[in-house]
Specification:
Chain lengths: ~325, ~550
């Protein structure tokens, strides 16, 4: 009982997510600043590390404005729901070699479903805002998630097919340097789909501030905005952790296995994502749809064929 | 002179005279001839109507309307005048919009500010001025500004009422079951600046765009008439603070022409150095803004980094980084301490060192090309028809650059070539900006070397040569001057009265006005994603849009 509470509140639950959000937020700012030839947060704490903490506490205490004419329950419950759903996947991730909090035979299925539900909640925030820009953002997020999630799921399926299991712990146990190489195309595809799913450039179409004023974020302020941001960073964590678990061998390290390696791998993915963000402009919705259905989905299908072939060639006999 | 003169001579006119190198100046006797002469001019190749500028002569009881026709290919231009009666009821003339598409907004402006009624204009509504000026004409000499300002609360109320009424109309006009809606893109939008586009769209597809401008209307053209000739430069430079020097140069040239004053070679070379520095500062912002509009802020930040060095030079020269007030009639405002050129050298070194990575990462960016190629394409014909200029015109392959066509300051002595690009798309306009940035740096290098040489040989005295004496009072007269401003061609039309201490009328024809007119034309049928991109690529500044 106490163990469950600790897991829910501390690791890998609420506190861990908050720490990750604050830390990653600060890291994004500092890293982007370097790429921008700026200084970034500077004055508060070591290298401005308190800045994010202050910003988040400011958002929490600010007035949260609910526009006239919206359903206040729909408007305010969606951010909360979004955070909860974004935090749930971490219960299924094997963070350390002691396994996941919920050790399930269907861990991968739970992961992709929980990640896949999130955009729909964000669509509802846009829908519930009673604002033209938010609504357009909501439509865009739905369009994007439908087309990018197809390839995301197909790419996430490749380790499951290779090892013949949906159990995430088993996938991690069976992974090796060789399986990493076999799954490498799958990893690249997963990463591209991840950019679309997390609305990162060049696929930051649903919250394009220059086009539709941050889309579904437009009407949100104060605590609700904080919750949406928290959901976004918790979602980062879920998707990064998914990539590390499925393709990069999770906590497996060079000499010892530890959470440290898990974290380093997640950070590596974050750095690559940030670098792309700093050098790639946004494409249009039509171009994204074109890219997704004409290239991504067929190639992820081909990748599945490659994984099955590799399995037949190298893994079945062994 | 040739074919333009021949056409004008066919009609009865008060005078026809040659003006400057490229211009013919004429005054029609009867306003009835305007339409037929315009038709002939268009057939002969003068396809762009640069602007329509009325001048209100209160004492003579005459409203004189000036038309500036340009041929961007042969550079033969015509300045045509015609007198109208001043009374509001009779102050009307045939509209040229059916013939010259570029006239549409200029005629609307003349209508809003002076009450000139243009017959057969397709869409004669108020523009720029706010709703509290409905029915009155603020630029007429007998308009009482003080009386108008007294009713501040009422004025604001009328603006609010008009906005609410418009909003209600929008909701009523549109079928509530359809997916059509009207979006207010601005004036407080992340990418708009102080302008409002009424975007009538069906989902993501744009049906039409009606720009609502005037949010930064400072009535600069009226403001200058309240100041003396030197004081007016602070109003003129606020055309757009990004490139403030070249607009002052244009104004100063017009004043000098009326006063009959020649400036020193040192001052004209300094105008080149300062002008190009301001152009660089503007182009850096333009390049960054283009990528900002596609959601990528890195280039803007990098450009800021280099731009600061150029602003350092402006600061060391004039004491101000942005609004420098550094050019005034008679020369340039301050003498030059040669130490200041060290700041400039630092900026040039920084530029040379950092421009390579900008080109590699952003100018050759494949995603940018994927996104911006074939978007917002302008053909050569459209450049002529809509009177576009600057990088927009050159991006479509039209060779127009006032620095070469009508050399001013010391541009005639420089090694300068047209830079053009053939495609005419947003991507081409972006590349034009980048190439012109490099061109400006090369001009600065040439001019700097020339000044340094001349100073070393004793030809120029940098502390004494910067100004020549200007007369306290100017004679009656008028002049036009054109400069290649960062965003395109600026035409200044200055009118003075007898013993003038301040301008009687200054018309500033600013390029963004024409470029904004293109938005509906370019965006119809495109998607919402293209608004910021095309808007950004037209290099519009709201400062010179509203004036």
């Amino acid at each position: 009982m106490i163990e469950t509470i600790i897991q829910a509140v501390v690791f890998p639950g609420l506190l861990y997510t908050l720490l990750w959000t604050v830390g990653l937020f600060w890291f994004f700012r500092k890293f982007m600043a370097a790429l921008h030839k700026r200084v970034g947060p500077h004055f508060n704490g070591v290298a401005g590390s308190y800045q994010t903490l202050f910003d988040l506490s400011k958002l929490l205490t600010k007035e949260s404005i609910t526009p006239v004419g919206v359903n206040p329950y729909l408007f305010s419950i969606m951010p909360l729901l979004a955070v909860v759903v974004a935090m749930l996947p971490s219960a299924f991730i094997p963070w350390t070699d002691s396994g996941a909090v919920v050790g399930s035979e269907y861990g991968l299925l739970a992961l992709v479903i929980l990640i896949g539900v999130e955009p729909f909640l964000l669509f509802l925030t846009g829908f519930g805002s009673n604002n033209k820009y938010s609504f357009l953002g909501g439509i865009r997020i739905l369009t994007q998630s439908i087309s990018m999630e197809t390839s995301f799921f197909l790419a996430a399926l490749s380790p499951a097919l290779l090892f013949g299991t949906l159990n995430l712990s088993t996938i991690v146990d069976s992974s090796s340097w060789f399986s990493f190489l076999v799954l490498f195309p799958g990893f690249i595809l997963y990463f591209i789909a991840l950019l679309g799913l997390l609305e990162q450039p060049p696929f930051n179409i649903p919250d394009a501030e220059q086009e539709i004023v941050y889309g579904f974020y437009t009407e949100y302020s104060g605590t609700n905005y904080f919750l949406l941001k928290l959901a976004e960073f918790a979602e980062f964590m879920a998707v990064f952790a998914g990539a590390v678990t499925l393709f990069l061998g999770a906590y497996k390290g060079v000499f010892v296995d530890s959470y440290f390696f898990f974290f380093t791998k997640m950070l590596f993915i974050a750095i690559v994502m940030m670098t792309i963000r700093a050098a790639t402009p946004r494409i249009t919705l039509a171009q994204m749809l074109n890219f997704s259905w004409r290239y991504m989905v067929p190639i992820t299908l081909l990748n599945l064929a490659w994984v099955l072939l590799a399995k037949a060639l190298f893994f079945v006999g062994a | 002179m040739d074919y333009v003169r021949k056409i004008v001579e066919e009609f009865e006119s008060k005078y026809i005279e040659n003006y400057k190198k490229n211009w013919l100046k004429a005054k029609l006797s009867s306003k009835g001839d305007l339409l037929s002469i315009a038709k002939k001019l268009k057939e002969e190749g003068l396809r762009s109507l640069s602007t329509v500028s009325p001048t209100d002569f209160l004492e003579e009881n005459v409203m004189e309307v000036n038309y500036f026709f340009e041929d961007l290919d042969t550079k033969r231009n015509l300045w045509l005048k015609v007198d109208l009666p001043r009374e509001v009821e009779e102050c009307s003339i045939e509209s040229l919009t059916p013939l010259f598409a570029s006239a549409e907004w200029h005629e609307r402006e003349a209508y809003s500010m002076f009450g000139v009624n243009f017959l057969n204009h397709p869409d004669l509504r108020d523009i720029i001025k706010s709703q509290d000026y409905a029915g009155v004409y603020p630029f007429r000499k007998d308009f009482d500004w003080d009386a108008h300002e007294e009713n501040t609360v009422q004025n604001i109320q009328s603006i609010v009422d008009a906005f609410k009424e418009e909003q209600n109309e929008n909701e009523l006009d549109l079928d509530s079951d359809s997916s059509e809606t009207i979006l207010n893109w601005g004036p407080t939008h992340p990418a708009s600046g102080p302008i409002r586009l009424r975007v009538h769209c069906d989902g993501e597809e744009i049906i039409s765009i009606d720009p609502d401008i005037g949010y930064v209307w400072r009535a600069l053209e009226h403001l200058v008439t309240k100041k003396d000739f030197v004081g007016a430069i602070v109003a003129v430079e606020r055309l757009c603070f990004m490139d403030n020097v070249n607009s002052m140069t244009g104004y100063a040239m017009a004043v000098e022409e009326i006063a009959g004053v020649e400036i020193t070679p040192f001052a004209s070379w300094m105008r080149v150095v300062l002008g190009e520095t301001a152009r660089i500062s503007s182009h850096f912002m333009g390049l960054g803004g283009f990528f900002n509009n596609m959601g990528l802020h890195t280039l803007a930040m990098w450009n800021m980094d280099t731009r600061e060095f150029f602003l350092d030079f402006l600061e060391s020269y004039s004491g101000a980084r942005i609004a420098t007030a550094s050019v005034e009639p008679g020369g340039v405002r301050y003498g030059l301490d040669m130490v200041m050129f060290e700041e400039l050298q630092k900026a040039l070194d920084k530029f040379d060192e950092s421009i390579g990575e900008v080109e590699a990462i952003f100018v050759k960016n494949p995603t940018m090309k994927l996104r911006a190629n074939n978007v917002g394409v302008l053909s050569k014909d459209e450049i002529h028809t809509f009177g576009l200029s600057g990088i927009v015109a050159r991006g479509s392959g039209v060779k127009t650059d006032i620095r070469i066509d009508e050399p001013y300051a010391a541009y005639g002595e420089l090694n300068l070539e047209y830079i053009t690009q053939e495609g005419g798309s947003s991507k081409d306009r972006f590349e034009m900006l980048f190439r012109e940035l490099k061109q400006s740096v090369s001009i600065i290098k040439q001019a700097k070397a020339h000044i340094e040489e001349a100073v070393a040989s004793g030809e120029m005295n940098p502390t004494k040569d910067h100004m020549v004496k200007m007369p306290k009072k100017l004679p009656k007269g008028e002049a036009i001057s054109r400069v290649e401003w960062a965003r395109g061609e600026v035409l200044m039309h200055l009118v003075t009265e007898e013993k003038a201490k301040s301008p009687y009328r200054l018309k500033m024809r600013a390029p963004s006005f024409n470029h904004t007119m293109m938005l509906n034309h370019l965006l119809k049928g495109q998607s919402l994603s293209d608004i910021p991109l095309i808007f950004g690529s037209l290099y519009i500044c709201q400062g010179d849009l509203d004036r």
